[in-house]
Design goal:
Blueprint: H1 7-12, H2 38-58, E1 61-62, E2 70-71, H3 75-81, H4 84-115, H5 122-129, H6 131-134, H7 137-147, H8 154-157, H9 159-162, H10 171-199, H11 203-211, H12 216-227, H13 229-244, H14 248-253, H15 265-275, H16 279-304
Antiparallel strand pairs: 1-2
Helix pairs in contact: 2-16, 3-16, 4-10, 4-13, 13-16, 15-16
């Protein structure tokens, strides 16, 4: 027997509410228009693209900063290719950058993971540790130049450890001081990055590991490190760019000495442009730095598959 509804029942039946489409059901979400990107685009064009183009044009001229620029063709580039100081400065820049990455990465990683925990007095110790991050590079350089003074600084009081105390008077000592001062100032910055990333790791992963009997060390290598892979790549790229563009620390601490042993490319650019009044040659060095930093960053992105970065918490 088939039951049918009467017209009265159909009219009196309450309407079924329709669900509003949400993001999870695959409904299209309106994205901000291009107008939102106009201020940032203009800022980038005016303060990044336009200066870079002007530097590229200037690298093909001969200009002392006073008279009108004169087209010089590839003279500046030919001179750089045969300049031993320029070649040495590139190697020094790469060396200091690599040493900075090797020193700062494990320190900032371990300190960041520790600062993300719930230890007693962690907040106070973290605040004290982040003080160097609040200081300018100039202030930090002046501070360490006074502390490392061979006559009145720490080396003068501990000659059994530092010998004659003139660390900045020899090549290895000067390079070591530059790496140490850079790590002292910028490790807190990368520590802050790792701290935020470590706090974002789901605690359910650690709880499951504890149930399986995994200790602290095993959890660090099998959970924390894989979860911080993307953060590590980002931090290393920032270290590479920062290392290749280091200038003020060298200017105040070593001034490129002893001799030219710490004359990195950024400082050599300053010498060319503002001491020798060769702004064409200085512009060529600046363009070389941009190209080298871009190539290294692209290599890191390519090798690490940074462009394919996905969330390490998918499926949770």
């Amino acid at each position: 027997m088939t039951l049918t509804k009467s017209p009265a029942d159909a009219v009196s039946a309450p309407p079924v509410p329709r669900r509003r489409p949400t993001r999870r059901t695959g409904a299209a979400v309106a994205r901000p228009g291009f107008a939102w990107a106009v201020p940032a685009t203009l800022f980038f064009v005016l303060f990044a693209v336009v200066p870079l183009v002007l530097v590229a044009v200037l690298s093909f001229t001969s200009w002392d900063g006073l008279s009108s620029p004169r087209f010089a063709g590839f003279d500046n580039w030919t001179a750089l290719a045969h300049d031993p100081v320029m070649i040495q400065s590139l190697w020094l820049s790469l060396l200091i950058t690599v040493l900075g990455v090797v020193v700062q990465t494990p320190l900032s990683l371990l300190l960041g993971v520790w600062a993300a925990g719930k230890q007693r007095n962690r907040a106070v110790l973290s605040a004290v540790y982040f003080v160097p991050l609040l200081l300018s590079a100039t202030a930090v350089s002046v501070l360490w130049r006074a502390l490392l003074d061979p006559n009145f600084g720490v080396p003068a009081q501990a000659r059994w450890l530092f010998g004659d105390g003139n660390l900045l008077g020899m090549r290895s000592g000067a390079i070591g001081v530059l790496v140490f001062v850079g790590a002292w100032q910028y490790t807190p910055f990368h520590t802050l990055i790792y701290q935020g990333a470590a706090r974002a790791i789901p605690q359910v992963l650690y709880q499951a590991a504890q149930i399986d009997g995994a200790g602290t060390v095993r959890q660090f290598f099998h959970i924390t490190l894989p979860q911080l892979r993307n953060t590590m790549i980002t931090s290393m790229i920032l270290m590479v760019v920062g290392g290749l563009t280091t200038f003020d620390t060298v200017l105040i601490l070593t001034q490129g000495g002893p001799g030219t042993d710490t004359t990195i490319s950024a400082y050599y650019m300053y010498q060319k442009a503002f001491k020798s009044f060769d702004f064409g040659g200085g512009s060529a060095i600046a363009l070389v730095l941009v190209v080298v930093a871009t190539i290294i960053s692209l290599i890191v992105v390519r090798v690490s598959r940074y462009d394919d970065m996905r969330s390490t918490s998918e499926g949770l």
